């Protein structure tokens, strides 16, 4: 689990939550693969899974197939005849980039997949709009957000050294806005504000150059890829979580599971009001939303945001009340009743 992406972790945790739901008999087909091997192993796994689903459909051994993304959802096109012949319904979770990212699948398959599926379950309003824009009837769209496992996280106390500690977590790519934040926001903040970025990716060198360019080596660091234990400690010891995303055509932020992880540790978020991020942050409950790309607004929010114990307790309580997997699994069960008819 330590080496997979956020979307893959969500799929595994959702499968676990649905398996424990008393009203369901769930069988899971999961590709357990380290991220660096995922793209190599995905195609043969999809072929094997398609064959297995075909056999199960012929036996009428299932009522509904829930695909974990629009990538696996493409199997609904391949299996359409046998599924319809045996009265088996299909649904797929839409995360964002699996719908919008330019590529062969998005150009040639996404429209057919959306037309074939009985239901699509976007994780945010922004992802829902992307699905509708690509031809999915609104009657077959039901938004269900991501969840967080309360057992993985405990409330932390934040920093204890008199500094204000900021943290971001994610792949070091342009849409995450880490380089922009180092270039445009950190120079505006006083010396007692320190910033850590956990993750790896193609923008690592550019972020490091920005740190050096502004003389921020003493208070800005790249923490690299963290173990699960180290990641929880990073959230717990931070005063604020920072989500400084910037818009990149086709490469949307469908949700932002890391904000839930930080919130489950009691760490409030200062985030760009962009795409699916806006569905995660409730201002005054678990963080603050500011305009994407507005450096002055980010700096002001960071310096004015309260980070005391009562704020941390409220942040954790809100996160677990709204996004715990027990709550989210129940919403999936309700959605999969298929009350809406096909158009």
Strand order of the largest sheet: 6-5-4-7-8-9
pLDDT < 50 runs, ≥5 residues: 339-343
Fraction of residues in H or I helices: 40-55%
Report the order of strands and helices: HHEHHEHHHEHEHEHEHEHEEHHH
| E-strand count | 9
Helix segment tally: 15
Largest sheet: 6 strands, parallel
- Given helix and strand content, the structural type is alpha/beta
Spatial separation of the terminal alpha carbons: 39 Å
Radius of gyration: 21 Å
In what range is the share of β-strand residues? 5-15%
Shape, principal axes of CA atoms: elongated
Look at the structure and give the mean pLDDT.
90
List the helices and strands and how they pair.
Blueprint: H1 6-19, H2 35-58, E1 64-67, H3 75-78, H4 80-85, E2 89-94, H5 97-100, H6 104-108, H7 110-116, E3 119-122, H8 125-133, E4 164-169, H9 178-184, E5 193-198, H10 204-213, E6 220-224, H11 228-237, E7 240-243, H12 257-264, E8 269-272, E9 287-290, H13 295-304, H14 309-323, H15 325-335
Parallel strand pairs: 1-2, 2-3, 4-5, 4-7, 5-6, 7-8, 8-9
């Amino acid at each position: 689990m330590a080496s997979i992406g956020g979307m893959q972790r969500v799929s595994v945790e959702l499968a676990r939550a649905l398996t424990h739901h008393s009203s369901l008999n769930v069988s899971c087909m999961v590709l357990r693969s380290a991220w660096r091997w995922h793209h190599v192993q995905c195609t043969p796994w999809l072929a094997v899974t398609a064959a297995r689903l075909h056999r199960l459909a012929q036996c009428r051994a299932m009522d509904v197939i829930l695909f974990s993304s629009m990538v696996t959802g493409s199997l609904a096109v391949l299996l359409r005849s046998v599924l319809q012949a045996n009265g088996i319904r299909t649904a797929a979770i839409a995360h964002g980039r699996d719908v919008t990212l330019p590529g062969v699948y998005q150009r040639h398959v996404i429209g057919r997949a959306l037309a074939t599926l009985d239901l699509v379950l976007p994780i945010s309003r922004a992802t829902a709009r992307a699905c509708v824009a690509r031809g999915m009837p609104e009657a077959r769209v039901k938004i269900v957000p991501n969840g967080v496992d309360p057992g993985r996280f405990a409330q932390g106390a934040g920093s204890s050294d008199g500094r204000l500690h900021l943290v971001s977590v994610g792949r070091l790519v342009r849409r995450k806005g880490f380089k922009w934040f180092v270039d445009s926001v950190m120079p505006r903040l006083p010396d007692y504000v320190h910033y850590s970025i956990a993750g790896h990716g193609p923008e690592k060198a550019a972020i490091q150059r920005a740190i050096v360019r502004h003389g921020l080596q003493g208070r800005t660091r790249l923490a690299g890829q963290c173990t699960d234990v180290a990641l929880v400690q990073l959230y717990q010891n931070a005063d604020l979580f920072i989500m400084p995303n910037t818009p990149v055509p086709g490469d949307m932020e469908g949700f932002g599971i890391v904000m839930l992880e930080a919130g489950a540790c009691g760490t409030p978020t200062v985030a760009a009001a962009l795409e699916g991020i806006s569905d995660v942050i409730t201002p005054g409950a678990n963080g603050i939303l500011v305009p994407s790309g507005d450096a002055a607004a980010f700096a002001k929010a960071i310096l004015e945001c309260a980070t005391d114990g009562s704020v941390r307790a409220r942040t954790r309580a809100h996160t677990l009340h709204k996004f715990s997997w027990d709550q989210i699994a129940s919403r999936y069960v309700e959605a999969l009743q298929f009350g809406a008819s096909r158009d």
